[in-house]
């Protein structure tokens, strides 16, 4: 299952709490170019089969346990490492995720 978000839909800036939790058919997620995702709330993708995701640089905040129980292998953030650090500043469970790194657009890797 791939979820595409139309970038002209300005109302879609958030992925709510537990929005896709336990959706076992969700294996990867693609945001359309120009997507304006700003917030990904608690447990949004928990216990899915998500293995790969690329997050737009518009992300401002990342909730707790967003990827809990996921076999996540690849996480790419289209912003800088500094912006990623800001987005996850209040996030719990980050250090317990299965993904071992985040590739940021400026070439920095968060481990």
Question: Which features does this protein show?
Answer:
111 residues; mainly beta; 6% helix; globular
What value does the average pLDDT take? Answer: 81
Category from helices, strands and their pairing? mainly beta
Helix content: under 10%
Which percent band covers the strand fraction?
15-25%
Number of strands: 8
Instruction: Give a quick account of the main beta sheet: strands, pairing sense, barrel closure.
Output: 5 strands, mixed
Give the terminus-to-terminus CA distance: 28 Å
Residue windows where pLDDT falls under 50 for at least 5 positions: none
Please give the radius of gyration in angstroms: 13 Å
Structural shape: globular
Strands of the widest sheet, in order across it, are 2-4-6-7-8
Q: Treating each run of at least 4 consecutive H or I residues as one helix, how many helices? A: 1
Order of helices and strands: EEEEEEHEE
């Amino acid at each position: 299952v791939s979820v595409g978000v139309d970038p002209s839909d300005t109302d879609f800036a958030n992925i709510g709490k537990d929005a896709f939790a336990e959706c076992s058919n969700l294996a990867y997620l693609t945001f359309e170019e120009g997507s304006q995702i700003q917030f990904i709330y608690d447990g949004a993708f928990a216990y899915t089969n998500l293995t790969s995701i690329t997050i737009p640089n518009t992300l401002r905040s990342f909730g707790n346990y967003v990827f809990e129980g996921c076999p996540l292998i690849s996480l790419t953030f289209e912003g800088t490492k500094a912006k990623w650090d800001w987005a996850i500043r209040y996030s719990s469970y980050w250090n317990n995720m299965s993904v071992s790194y985040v590739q940021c657009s400026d070439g920095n890797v968060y481990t």
